[in-house]
Amino acid sequence: MERTYVMVKPDGVARGLIGKIITRFEDKGLNLVSAKLLQMDEALAKAHYQEHVGKPFFDDLVSFITSGPIFAMVLEGDEAISVARKMMGETNPLEATPGTIRADFAVHMNRNVIHGSDSEASAKREIGLFFKPEELTSAKRADWNWI
């Protein structure tokens, strides 16, 4: 089983989309391993988006992600990283396939509702930024034999 980090960004939280987004992942067969609502501070935001340091949009990205609460979660399942990213859709919602989270709920690239790890290394790093090991559960879904 693979784990991935997924975050509902401040725009998604403010619009009341957390439940709809979790439902999509659970309906697909991914297991919610841990989750929490939190306010990201500037230090955590800079650590999370470290690969974008020095890019022209970095300051706006940090400002946005710290502008309101985020909903952080860890999902688990077969190929969880690629499954979650496919379900999220393209970063630019205008290019996202209909039926994806970004196509259905976002209208602007800078307010695209959701973030998800793009690799095993990113998932491990991001999970470590937001969750202590003891916060991660190992309960298995009862329906995994059927998915």
UniProtKB/TrEMBL annotation:
GO BP annotation list: CTP biosynthetic process; GTP biosynthetic process; UTP biosynthetic process
Species the sequence originates in: Listeria aquatica FSL S10-1188
InterPro entries: NDK-like_dom (IPR034907), NDK-like_dom_sf (IPR036850), Nucleoside_diP_kinase (IPR001564), Nucleoside_diP_kinase_AS (IPR023005)
GO CC terms, sorted: cytoplasm
Location of the Nucleoside diphosphate kinase-like domain: 1-138
Classification via Pfam families: NDK
Gene that encodes the chain: ndk
Enzyme class, UniProt record, top EC level: transferase
GO molecular function: ATP binding; endonuclease activity; metal ion binding; nucleoside diphosphate kinase activity
Function per UniProt: (Microbial infection) Catalyzes the phosphorylation of dZDP to dZTP, when the bacterium is infected by a phage that produces the substrate for the synthesis of dZTP (2- amino-2'-deoxyadenosine 5'-triphosphate), which is then used by the phage as a DNA polymerase substrate. Major role in the synthesis of nucleoside triphosphates other than ATP. The ATP gamma phosphate is transferred to the NDP beta phosphate via a ping-pong mechanism, using a phosphorylated active-site intermediate.
Keywords assigned by UniProt, alphabetized: ATP-binding, Cytoplasm, Endonuclease, Hydrolase, Kinase, Magnesium, Metal-binding, Nuclease, Nucleotide metabolism, Nucleotide-binding, Phosphoprotein, Transferase
Sequence positions that bind ATP: K9, F57, R85, T91, R102, N112
Record family assignment: Belongs to the NDK family.
Protein name: Nucleoside diphosphate kinase
Active site: H115
